[in-house]
Design a protein that fits this description.
With 644 residues, the protein is of the alpha/beta class. The chain is built from 17 helices and 26 strands. About 4% of the residues have low confidence.
Amino acid sequence: MSDNPEKLDLQSQNPAEVRREELKRILPEVFTDEGKIDFDQLKRTLGEWVDPGKERYGMQWPGKADCLKSVQKPSLGTLLPVPVESVNFDSTENMIIEGDNLEVLKLLQKSYVGKVKMIYIDPPYNTGNDFIYPDNYSENLQTYLEYSEQTDSLGKRFSTNSDTDGRFHSKWMNMIYPRLFLARNLLSDDGLVFISIDDHELDNLKKICDEVFGDENFIGLFVINSSPSAIDYGHIGKMHDYVLFYSKTLSDITTSQLTEENKEFKFSDKLGPFNVYPLYNGNVAFNPKTRPNLYYPFYVNPLNLIEDNFYEISLEEKPDWIKVYPVTSKKEGIQRVWRWGRSKSQGELNKEIVGYKNESGEFRIVQKSRHTGKVIRSLQVDKDISTRRGTGELENIFGSKIFPFPKSKELIRRFISVGIGEDDIVLDFFAGSGTTAHAVLDLNKQDGGNRRFILVQLPEPTNRKDFPTISEITKERVRRVIKKLNQEESGKLDLDSEKKQDRGFKVFKLAPSNFKVWDASQGSKSGKSEERSKLLQSQLHLTKETELEKRSELDFLYEIILKDGFLLSEKVEVLMIAGKKAYCLRDLYYISLESALTSEFFDSLAKRNPNRLVCLESAFGGDDALKSNAVQLFKSKEAKLVTV
């Protein structure tokens, strides 16, 4: 091999392009994401002052304003139930939804706001050719319908993001930002978020999450040894990727510990063995300026020794009691704050929070810990969490390598164990092969819990005949996992018949609304007449009668349920009232999709003391008297009559 460096072949390149590349090598900071020169930034870099106008701290990128607009634009779609592809459709509370997750997240806003305890997602890493996204936010649903071949193609398609394209990073950020923005609304106040990512977009994702969830709700960054044998990238053997860990509201969350066998305890009292941990918060970003509510004194009674080196404490100042504040870190010299607020501390005084005299004779405030487990570590390195393990798990289910780089069940199981209780909901809107559902079902079997999952996956083509889309792989994996779990328990004695685990899932598919939707803004948009014509044609296509004629009564029912704020898992009772079919939810909410209703129906239903009835406008058959009497009847019962 020659010791001489390679020479740049100047003759084969455009001289202007050579100069541009040389400038980019020397001054990369003056180039935009599209590869263009920011001349104002170039002047600033060279020492010439250019007034930037009003500046504020924040992250900006091309297209951010448009993706924010897309968040506000309501979906024109619905979720069609597919019982034939489901498992235990009538009883399960688990969901697998096939469709573009941006549209699906919009449709879940009313029913699931504040209902989700944990979100885990493994989004595309933007490695150059690995994610698809809608080309036009204003026609997101229509683009999806064409992509999934639910409508005739008009030429628009989801497409890949090549690293040779302009706005390479911006396109990825425009994809992820609105989805995280909408997903946050679904989180409960004590909800948690785990997001897998590698180093291509880690820095951008961290900044986006800081903006969406608030940097004060950043909990930590997991390093995952996903490839123990390392992937050779030429200059480095890559072994790991990351998981960002955020909360909805840090002060409201609690996390569980992972099980640790044969854990040793140093102390014991009448309640049992325990260890002690300082009550101060170890995060140096938390100080009296950022968390004033966590900075207050305890008072220790040096004359009242409860047991061993533990002393009585109070939050009220008392004569001759010693005032104790959180310690100041020796390394950074930063004043710490407590982990608990005053009200929570008050409830645990002298039970789980006590005074403690250390070997130096100083008083500290400590918390008794009786956990038999350990706090989850930021470095996850064992072989059970590697991508190779995830690949092996999937291969055992299907008999072949059917999906690239699936996450391991054990990794997600750990996050679920830490993040949620035994009756909470996990949402994964980049579901892939369905590992999250597998982890939920497996963990429920281990501890008898009844955690529920909602998965969302785009029907992305696989070029396979047996499973033509990724969403088909998702559904089939969960079916096979459920079948295996049921087979393992067949023949065993049912010792806890009242606590049946939910081993099923409802399948829903994104589609145009069952009701005629007319977006008046489409026809009035500025632009060329041909463009306006195409927009109007698109609107007409979405509202064609022929599309809706294919729909079932169940399709209409679930759209009403979802848009009226009920969960998709809501139990629905079918009734016959005065010879007419009606659906009942929670014994108070009724839906009738009959084409012709009678006064006997309204009278009979009113006797049940409902608080709401939804029926078709056409059910009155143009009889204004019937409609008026029904409205007055329900009003007298302090109930509402709503038509669609």
